[in-house]
Amino acid sequence: MRLDELTRPDFPILERVVNGHPLVYLDSAASSQRPRTVIEAMSQYYARSHANVHRSIHTLGEEATELYEAARDRVQRFIGAQHREEVIFTRGTTDGLSLLAETIGRTLRAGDEVLITELEHHSNIVPWQLATRDRGAVLKAVPLGDDGTLDLGAFERLITRRTRVVAFAHVSNVLGTINPVAGMCARARQAGAFSVVDGAQAAPHLSLDMCALDCDFYAFSAHKMLGPTGLGVLYGRRKVLEALEPGRGGSEMIKEVWIDRAQWNDLPWRFEPGTPPIAEAVGLSAAIEYLEKLGMDAVAEHERALTRQTLEGLAAIPGVRVYGPPASEARGAVVAFSVEGLHPHDVAALLDAEGIAVRAGHHCAMPLMRRLGVVGTSRASFSVFNSPEEVRHLLAAVGELRTAL
Amino acid sequence: MSATQAARGPYSDVIRERWRRPRFRGELPGAGAVAEDVNPLCGDRVRLMLALEGERVSAARFVGDSCAICAASADVLAELVVGRSRAEALRVGAADLLAVLQADIRPTRMRCVTLPLSVLATALNGKR
Q: What's the CATH class of domain A3-30+296-403?
């Protein structure tokens, strides 16, 4: 049985009719949909077990704490982290990267360098601009080759003894490029720099193993991987986390507080100030359980087939241009494309009239858009519930776009 | 809304016509009032050029890199302001544009309609 045949009945939103057509949801890279088990787990939590976590000495408080910490254990197993205290819950990928930029940023000195890449999402650019600007540090970017992959020769040249942080995406949210994470992290460590990986587009689609990637930090969002909004995960290598001062203060993250000072809590709570998104952690746990039942290898294979079908189909339509590495290369589950003579927003609006949801615009990657020489692109992205029939529907609709306006 | 219209989304016949055959797209050499702005959501960019005879707008042209809705809106706006005084031109609003465009524009695309209006305000207020 194909994966989409197995999963489609689990996603209630797929029953929606949009503009007179059955919904074809091809925007999971922006935010995926949720299976019933995730919605029910959160609803059950609120209906039966909600209370604040960690310091509530009553039954519900203990239940909520157990569920919240069990979610951490599940994430730990899912990403192959060695220790549970390496899993920090945040509000999302952007929040995790910002937390790091603020925290590491405080230790930067004038002349220190932070190295990012040209294909980053704004979330992995702007926090580093703020962090370097205030400290007189320097922000540099690894350029992109014409084939949509990073110029690794330039990476070698740009990484120096002044480099304190190397921050880059595991999978590009526009091009689908899969960066050589393990190699880049090893090189960063050799240079004495922290490695920070934006895993937002990888965690929903690839089998992850923090030990194999051997990065210092890895951030991702629950809502792109069948889970709820408002929750993210920041993995941090224990040794590195232990040596870092928290950048944000509040409750939960302390052991003892005086008027003029505080003693930090243990990991991971040291980096989790305030009441965390508890129901969302319960939801993420259910989402991971769902993905694990399918098997991440089966998920990756299914989405790879859809991506290849889309790339080859779109490239065969006159006036349509696709971006990123060729279909033969390993790619993430996104396909950015443009239609000659049409603005990406018009492409998206015309497809929406056919019930097809795609993303259009700069995809929060303006430097990359400038590098590609476009104002924006349209982007189809895939999840476990998408089918080859839906891709055929997209291809047929795109084929008629040039005469639609 | 008819079935044909639904299949076209927000693209009314007026928008399609203005997008394919704009009447006011192009440069206006010697324009007395010029402004340009960008919609940060989508990267739409519109530049509006106005020639003024005293207080009256005597000619208007626009150029830009934008979606069909924004381009059609700019084209209609250029038509509406020609012959009006500066004060009258500044009173042209989104409702006037929508009345001509005859389109069902959702809130997410309203900025596409109104971007040319803010460019017009900058052009006219920036002069003198």
A: alpha beta
| Half-sphere CA count of B14, side-chain side, radius 13 A | 16
In chain B, residues with a C-beta closer than 8 Å to the C-beta of A343 are: 42, 44, 66-68
Can you name the residues that pair with B61 across neighbouring β-strands? B49
Give the pLDDT confidence score for residue B6 in this predicted structure: 46
Domain ranges of chain A: 3-30+296-403, 40-291
B43:A375 CB<8 A: yes
Is omega for the bond preceding A344 within 30 degrees of 0, making it cis? no
* Cβ neighbours around B102 below 10 Å, total: 10
For chain A, residues with pLDDT lower than 50 are: none
**Nearest residue on chain A to B11, judged by CA atoms?**
A405
d(CA A114, CA A42): 39
Q: Which of A27, A343, A400 to mutate to test the interface with B (most CBs of B within 10 A)?
A: A343
Length of chain B: 128
Q: Which amino acid is at A362?
A: H
Among chain A residues, CA nearest to B69: A346
Sketch out chain B's domains with CATH numbers: 10-126 (3.90.1010.10)
- What ipTM was estimated for this complex? 0.85
DSSP code of residue B107: G
Specify the DSSP class assigned to residue B85. B
Could you list the active site residues of A?
Answer: 364
pLDDT at B128: 36
Q: What is the pLDDT of residue B8?
A: 66
